[in-house]
Design brief:
CATH architecture of the largest domain: 4-Layer Sandwich
Order of helices and strands: HHHHHEEEHEEHEHEEEHEHEHEEE
Number of strands: 14
Distance between the termini: 60 Å
Number of helices: 11
Radius of gyration: 22 Å
Shape: elongated
Structural class: alpha/beta
Strand order of the largest sheet: 1-14-2-4-6-7
């Protein structure tokens, strides 16, 4: 009963938002744009949940066009909604309704188009220096990947691109902070295979994110190990004689267990999918927490909403004696768009604190 009510509420909200888009951006337009706009909103507005459901019910190759259309419209509709609100305000201040509507629609299409092109580029290497006390080496290079989301819309070609970029950086260590995959192993095994080629002097380590638990988790974790990726389950290891590396499962998030017994003479780095884990990391004496999950908001201004749930959405920040670095995500989820954010490969150079 509750699930049915939530679905009804979601569909009602979706319908109301599309009616608002039509009212502010289509109704003021002259023919034939009125007819074209009405047909577009009527076709794609209710189609979003249908297209996504159809896509998820089909094999990867067949699902891709359904999901591209469904998620593509979702991304565009976000900016049409913002444009509708801007048009509404402009008209309230005396602007011509048809000109305001046409301007808003053009801007929304332009922004969404930019987002599509931007996400198709190679991931951006974001370079950050982090001073850590007790670091026993002059510098230690960590490549941080997160939220790659290899699935229906991200496949082998993108994975190969990421591996080339990462290996060219010659890191000491590679870490992955969850949401690496987004689908069934039987369909994605070929597409994740390039990750076998990741190379770092001290190895490749990962933790689970929430998306790892949407599929066959046990088989996925076993397969990741076969690729040379060690998944940390509420535990820690010493890497390169330079630092203690701890990692928590998304399902348990047991920070205390992960860091228990660690060498206090070495800096402690924690892999945790959610940035909000930082409150427990500070209490556990973590020197640096690496996280993802937020995608940096992926589509501005959604990043502003993400700040309601996490203490940091992207980049480096300080919380007491603990650093927190949040990746914008190496891939994307949902709309194949990036606006105001970038697909990111993080290169963190750890240096001794003066």
């Amino acid at each position: 009963m509750r699930r049915g009510f939530r679905i009804w509420m979601a569909y009602s909200l979706l319908g109301a938002l599309h009616v608002y888009i039509w009212w502010r951006l289509v109704a003021p337009l002259p023919a034939p744009w009125w007819h074209l706009g009405t047909a577009t909103v009527a076709l794609f507005g209710p189609s979003f949940p249908f297209l996504i459901k159809r896509g998820k019910q089909r094999p990867r190759a067949q699902a891709r066009p359904w999901l591209l259309v469904g998620y593509g419209w979702f991304g565009l509709a976000n900016y049409l909604l913002l444009g509708a609100a801007a048009s509404h305000i402009a008209v309230a201040f005396g602007a011509d309704a048809s000109i305001a509507a046409a301007t808003a629609v053009t801007a929304a299409i332009g922004v969404a188009g930019y987002g599509l092109v931007h996400v198709a580029r190679a991931p951006t290497v974001v370079r950050v220096r982090v001073p850590l006390g007790k670091l026993p080496v002059p510098a230690y290079r960590v490549v941080h990947l997160s939220d790659v989301h290899i699935g229906a819309l991200i496949g082998r070609a993108y994975a190969e691109k990421v591996v080339r970029e990462v290996n060219a950086l010659a890191p000491d260590l590679i870490v992955i902070t969850g949401d690496l995959i987004d689908g069934e192993l039987r369909e994605l095994q070929e597409h994740i295979e390039p990750l076998r080629g990741l190379r770092a002097r001290d190895g490749v380590f990962a933790v689970t994110g929430n998306h790892e638990y949407y599929w066959d988790t046990a088989n996925w974790l076993a397969h990741l190990r076969s690729l040379g990726i060690r998944v940390l389950h509420d535990e820690h290891v010493v890497v390169g004689g330079a630092l203690s590396l701890a990692g928590i499962d998304d399902a348990t998030e047991d920070v205390a267990r992960a860091v228990a017994g660690r060498d206090p003479a070495l800096p402690l780095v924690l892999l945790a999918h959610y940035p909000r884990t930082i409150t427990r990391a500070v209490l556990a004496g973590v020197d640096l927490q690496l996280s993802g999950h937020t995608h940096g908001g992926q589509l501005l201004p959604l990043g502003w909403l993400a700040r309601l749930f996490d203490p940091r959405v992207a980049g480096l920040g300080r919380f007491g004696d603990t650093w927190l670095y949040v990746s914008q995500g190496t891939g994307f989820w949902g709309p194949p768009m990036r606006v105001g954010t970038s697909c990111e490969i993080g290169l963190l150079t750890l240096v001794p604190r003066p």
